[in-house]
């Protein structure tokens, strides 16, 4: 007999996952860790509102694949954060979800053991545990909000979120961002276009109604209030970098015309460094110079950094993985991270408090 089924033709299986509520009950955010997330979010709001003259620096690995190395990195970053805290507010990149140009490893949550077993529940547990460990150290964490369901499991631990260049134009990501509790940075598109980010910021400040899940794991209609803390992140594009003073001035104009915030973060990596990590410090220097020359719109920077330089392919035998080296985009190493951030802090120490609200 002919199979007349009309759905699930390309579905192999659907597995039920533990609920967000159950995961949070196993690993609750409470006490000083909760206070640390709340205070980090507020600090970033204050920077965006120009009540705090510091810049915030989102820095860390392109992706997390080894929680132990991530904690080693976090301990170093926490120490550096304390040293530069008068001038710079440091937030660690704790990126678990990678948007791929075509195919590739999609991050710790999707395939935590990097062996195509896709143990997503384990990925969520590992991710939540690592975030809790990091925020318990008093270090704020940031991530790319890529999957529309995972925020229910993890976003309570996040101080700043990014929407990536491949999803800034997506309605799903704009709706989700309108309900996030943290500030959100929208990257310009991969083609370098800023209009998608301007449109995203207009959208995200409004309330939305959309399909999602509740903490109890039920399919639900989510009603959001709108997120007042969105800003753009310039990350360059296929036509080249856009971190320089001319592109920044053009971006300010486009943002003003769109009636959205003129706060700008510069991503020193991605197309702004032509994916060559050694260029990131030069971009950071240029941004520092722009601020010394009077720029008022740049409120933050992003760096892709790890314990060791460069990147590596995921080997067939995972024992061959090199410690502290990215398995996605190439990163600067710890020594360069420390040197370039300290240099920026020293140069901007006396200048930032005198900046005016644009
Ligand atoms: O930041 C990470 C990468 O640039 C992004 O995930 C795209 O990676 P891919 O082009 O290697 O797939
Ligand atoms: C994927 C990232 O960046 P972009 O969206 O700018 O490519 C990232 O920051 O990890």
Automatic annotation (TrEMBL):
Pathway: Metabolic intermediate biosynthesis; chorismate biosynthesis; chorismate from D-erythrose 4-phosphate and phosphoenolpyruvate: step 1/7. Belongs to the class-I DAHP synthase family. GO terms for molecular function: 3-deoxy-7-phosphoheptulonate synthase activity; identical protein binding. This is Phospho-2-dehydro-3-deoxyheptonate aldolase. It comes from the Bacteria. The keyword Signal does not apply. Gene3D superfamilies: Aldolase class I. Residues 46-338 form the DAHP synthetase I/KDSA domain. Keywords: Amino-acid biosynthesis, Aromatic amino acid biosynthesis, Transferase. It catalyses: D-erythrose 4-phosphate + phosphoenolpyruvate + H2O = 7-phospho-2-dehydro-3-deoxy-D-arabino-heptonate + phosphate. It is an enzyme of class 2 (transferase). It comes from Pseudohongiella spirulinae. GO terms for cellular component: cytoplasm. Stereospecific condensation of phosphoenolpyruvate (PEP) and D-erythrose-4-phosphate (E4P) giving rise to 3-deoxy-D-arabino-heptulosonate-7-phosphate (DAHP). The lineage of its organism: Bacteria, Pseudomonadati, Pseudomonadota, Gammaproteobacteria, Pseudomonadales. One of its GO terms (biological process) is aromatic amino acid family biosynthetic process. Its EC number is 2.5.1.54.
